[in-house]
């Protein structure tokens, strides 16, 4: 009993200090830098684990190849006797060849299972130099070439049926490397070596024994502050004081709530922050999106009316500010929502609106079609791009397979939640160019405008020639001399 009190006396003050520091920094919108250092440490651990997995896999592959070579060398010296008298030799041959076949088959199955976890195929409409469409016959006519081209499109169509671009966006994003969580890997890499096993066990203890208690305490404090502050602010008459208090309490509450999932968020281009009378549109991954965006600005929310805990939060938020909730199944609500949106943006004293035009959660790898309702209002639109780093945890909520409680538990037991839409200068320039071309109805080309003054660089010419060559080499045309020799040989056979 004394040992328990001793351990509690050491743990409780430490947890209290950690929680207090997090709440204090979050309430004033400051950063201590600990979460950023924590994320950097996780990246180094993941890189080390990936290196260990690669080395273990290479060692296992070398061992299997050596075994296969030994078995094949043994099989070369064995001959099968056709007589039925020596049945032992025949059985030994069968056992050896079966063992060799089993090893080769298991290796092929392992390679298939390793490549099965991540599907990366970019749909292409036209053949490219990367397509390996081997042919064993010569194409003698133009019609034959057309038939072979049609087979390529048939292959592309079958691939699109097997792996389409829509349904994969409603599933969790697959990782290129393991993040030391069993839920993200169908292969138990932790059993490849004792080092990986030890790191996995330590990570499991850290996430479930240390992170979860601290995160739950921070979450309940943030949730309690959100509920009680909005309830009290709702009693204050409309005016500047109410708007000021609502803004300060909402920012503090959501910043504390995001600390409960160890959120590390990077906001870019803050000069384009949404203002009153505007509509902010963003891609949608999970209910966590609202918490992430509300760390930097206060928004009026528009969404489907929910029940249970989410419905309680919606009603609580509506006491302190004007939010718009609707029933998706009721057709009349659409016109009413559009009318409410126009009235909201016309009032300069109301908060900017946050809308997710996709209407559902997508796995953060793509952006689906936007609904037109938010663009019919005629207000100023502020687009926001949200990109989560799936290495530290899956932020996507698959509402058709996960309950909100299960999704919340996965967030709490993840390493962290990192939101960082990283974009380099080249990507930014291409995105701006594409937007200008789409707005003006222009053709978006990848060529340099300086070609007006200078010749095309030989490197670009060689690249285009290489593309044409690889496309045409699939149809090697027989030389006329070879065709004439074949005709003469046919005539001699007929004679």
UniProtKB/TrEMBL annotation:
A Pfam family name for this chain?
Acyltransferase
Task: Identify the pathway.
Answer: Phospholipid metabolism; Lipid metabolism
> What segments bear the compositional bias annotation Acidic residues?
66-89
Domain Phospholipid/glycerol acyltransferase, first and last residues per copy: 278-389
Biological process (GO) annotations?
A: phospholipid biosynthetic process; triglyceride biosynthetic process
Q: Where in the cell is it found?
A: Membrane
Q: Which residues cross the membrane?
A: 6-28, 191-210, 216-237
Q: What protein is this chain from?
A: Phospholipid/glycerol acyltransferase domain-containing protein
